[in-house]
Fold each of these.
Amino acid sequence: METVLVTGAGGYIGTVLVPKLLNKGYYVKAVDRYFFGKEKLPQHQNLEIIKEDTRKLPEQIFENVNYVIDLVAVSNDPSGELFNKATWQINYRSRVRTAYLSKKYGIKRYILPSSCSIYGFQEEIVDETSKTNPLTTYAKANEKAEQEVLPLADENFVVTVIRQSTVFGYSPRMRFDLAINGMTYGAWKTGKLPLMRDGTQYRPMVHVQDTTDVMVLLLSADKNKINGEIFNVGGDNLNYQIGKLGKIVANTVQKETGRNVDIEWYGDPDHRSYRVSFKKIKETLGWTPKWNAEMGVKEIVNKLEKGEIDKTTETITLNWYKELEKWYNIIEELKMYGGILNIDIDNDEITPFSLNK
Ligand SMILES: NC(=O)c1ccc[n+]([C@@H]2O[C@H](COP(=O)([O-])OP(=O)(O)OC[C@H]3O[C@@H](n4cnc5c(N)ncnc54)[C@H](O)[C@@H]3O)[C@@H](O)[C@H]2O)c1
């Protein structure tokens, strides 16, 4: 049985990827701080939960591992700005460290899940050879990680970078801070879908089932086709103009629920746009996405209607990290004797002279 080490395994993408790997017969070492909870991964005899920080991952974890999928990250732009230092450490340094250790321990393949956001906004349709234009800490840290892990590739160590489009769809660690997911929730909950003017801007999207399919595919793909390579992950038909995407979401929610959904435009016209070519992954690996936005919206609406998911603080990454930091500080200040109200003491210790002993 081959072993895959997945970092960030408790996240939005990880909690979809890990069950897929288990179904394919892999043994999985699932590393995460589990900021979003451990219970989102299934219990399985071939799954080893490792609660660890990737900045301090002990070397023995790399023993007997065949593949690494290094998902770990502070995973969006606003969190990257607020937790700037941690983002550089986790998204860049810890991933380069993990790639080095993977090579040192003779691991066969290392996959770095990066992001199309490193292209920034550009007029032309960009492909893997285009100049990048990372605009945020999150995008810059991804680019630095790419630049330092790719040169590690050699004939015994396969390194592949995938630049994922913005992901959508249901995951056990649900995220409503992703474009399609957030729009769907707004339309479903309030019947109003806020859209930034003027709607002509393009953004590439990919479903979480599709991007995790690519990760699985890369474990067995012909190494000569993928070693040292970068692949954009998405579909040419999934380069959505925001206005059209808003209409797809509104119509789908309306159809699924029978309730009216109106689009509400806001802001000054934003022409920042980027369109990505997905020709390379299609021609090299014969891969194209199976899902589109409409299917993803339907899936989420069904889960919302059944009450299986909801928009809680935990589903908005930035708010959850802020909340965790806030409570960490409060608890550090208040805790005494191992607790707050419940402390580490028994009754006799308080009233050794008690009459009703
Ligand atoms: N979701 C998207 O739209 C998208 C798009 C492009 C690229 N990506 C990339 O895919 C990867 C996964 O994204 P996601 O959406 O699943 O994000 P996520 O925030 O849901 O998952 C990240 C996981 O990493 C864990 N983590 C954070 N810091 C850690 C640390 N120091 N040590 C151990 N664990 C830690 C968190 O607990 C979380 O479970 C990220 O690298 C992200 O940049 C995501």
Amino acid sequence: MPPVYRGRVKELTLFQPPTRPWNIPNLSPFCAKLECYLRVTEIPYKTAPMQMGKAPKGKIPYVELADGTRLGDSQHIIEHLERALAAEGKPALDADLSSHDRAIGHLTRRAFEEGYYFVTMYMRWRTDDGFAATRDEFKKFIPGLIVPIVRRDIKKKLRSQGTGRHSVEEIAALGAAAFDAAAELLGDKPFLLGDKPHVVDCTVYAFLEAALGFPVDSPLKQRAASHANLVAYRKRIRERWWKDLGAA
Ligand SMILES: N[C@@H](CCC(=O)N[C@@H](CS)C(=O)NCC(=O)O)C(=O)O
């Protein structure tokens, strides 16, 4: 497949956690989404470890543009870059979408980012075996003593958001429904909305990596892995844009 876009938008710096845990792009699915977008669009970038105090929205990812402007929120950053590509007369990743497909992409993306995200957090932080694997990765870049404090904070947030009130079985069913729906939408197409990737693919790919790459087995992981088309989709994107990670 030819490159989707050979960009001239100037090099930016992507601030994110500095590791590639479990042979996946990033601990943070939002960082993985944005980095995937940068790779697919061939926008030049370098990475640097985040400093939360400098994050414009207090969250990761955030970027610093060539002119020194800092932007936060993966989607805000992508929308800025989509406009920058269009201003250069280059096709933005989602420029070819019909309004119907744009709506499907938007709703699918939001289902993962605002719904399934909390399932990921639950599996990593709320379950004891999930936490053991997560703690080992966090200890690579934050002091080990802080990790239980982060856990306490995340468990509190999960409870107030609502996901933390469910049993692990209920969570597995919620998460499975997201992958069942993504598999149905993908069907036998190469990408969710057709023959080429769009922003929604960066999101779904990032969450698929988080689920399939997580080293703790669970009915949820098994359900995601049971969709042969999703497994092939992950492989297709890795082989094209994440060669440096090697095979899954
Ligand atoms: N809507 C944001 C969500 C970013 C987000 O939730 N990032 C998490 C890491 S996956 C974070 O920064 N958490 C730290 C915190 O909430 O303090 C985006 O798309 O960038």
